[in-house]
Amino acid sequence: MATVLGGMVPRPPWRYRLLAAIHAHRNAGDPGADPVVERAIDGLVKATSRAVLGVEKPGWITSGASEGNLLALYSLREEGYRRVLTFDTSHYSIHKSARMLSMDLELLPTESGRPSLELLEKKATPETVIVATVGTTQEGLVDPVGEIARIARSAGAAVHVDAAYGGYIARFLTGKARFSLDPPIHTLVVDAHKIPEAPPPAGVILASNQRILDNLWFESPYIPSGRQFGVLGTRPGGPIVAAWRRVENLERNPGFPRLASILMRRLRKTLEALERLGYKTPVTPDLPVACATHPRMGEVLERLEALGVRVYRCPRYNGVRIVMMPSTRPKTYVKYLALDKS
Question: In angstroms, what CA-CA distances link 177 with 109, 167, 252?
């Protein structure tokens, strides 16, 4: 397996890989037929909601935030919101989902990744879904969800929160990620296969109320439960069982507040070491994701490619992405990016 720098879906701890393999035969697409999967779904949703919001909200499993974003926008479209308004730092799955759902999409420009609330206020309308990101892919920034919700409430708009990377830790690091999942904030998605390092695919969608979720249940008369959730029919149950155990275990030890602090400390240590190698950080991140640039970035990338190292980039800044996960250590980035040291 190739060395990967800057990835957000790391190799899960062995015990959770084993747990996913043990339960690989289970189908989460028909949860009523399997009490183990049913319990895992309930446990994962509740543990995730406690970590992300501090309270338990209605939710269900997804294959990840890309599916979750599609489902959230679909549900809100069914509620009468036909337009998507977001920032140029939003994840590509938002753009893809809007296109698939034939929803009008407008991307608002940002300044060094930070949104203009004044411009948002001018653009928001009653038929709009505003998408806020908790952990932008290239900068590790958090959109000010509470202020965005205030603008949406005034305009009669809805808010969807894409917290794929940052959901489990963001509220412990920045006030911009402390909010309640209540109207006008209707939906939130998060990945258990990112920060918790659960085996993929494992994600969760949370909603302000059950009706928003009910839009995502579809009649399936030939299976015993008579209905299925979301896009997929068959869903792998093994990763859901493993994700449930992983998230609950992290909730207890070390706890998500402490994990957030650990990861930010590692990021700072990494960036300080890279600075001594000539790298710069164009944007100060809110979460343990950053972009590192170098005057000879082309040469750095060529050398890494020659070594077979797969590198995730931040093309807005012509740099490489630095991502901290529970299993990531600063020395990994220093080891490979120090190749450029003269």
Answer: 21, 8, 21
Q: Which pLDDT tens digit goes with each residue over 15-26?
A: 999 999 999 999
Domain limits of the chain? 4-8+256-340, 14-252
Residue pointed to by tokens 């479209």: 77
| 279, 268 contact by CB (below 8 A) | no
CB 149 within 8 A of CB 121: no
Q: Where are the alpha helices (DSSP H) in 124-187?
A: 145-155
Which backbone phi and psi does 195 adopt, to 5 degrees?
A: -55, -45
> 218-243 pLDDT, tens per residue?
998 888 888 899 999 999 999 999 99
Helix, strand or coil for residue 31? Answer: helix
Q: What does the alpha-carbon distance between residue 259 and residue 147 come to, in Å, rounded to a whole number?
A: 26
CATH 3.40.640.10 fits 14-252, yes or no: yes
Integer Rg of the chain from CA = 20
pTM: 0.96
Whole-number Å distance between alpha carbons of 94 and 159: 13
Domain 4-8+256-340 has CATH 3.40.50.620: no
Cis status of the peptide bond prior to 200, with omega within 30 of 0: no
Q: What is the DSSP letter of 134?
A: B
State the DSSP code for 338: G
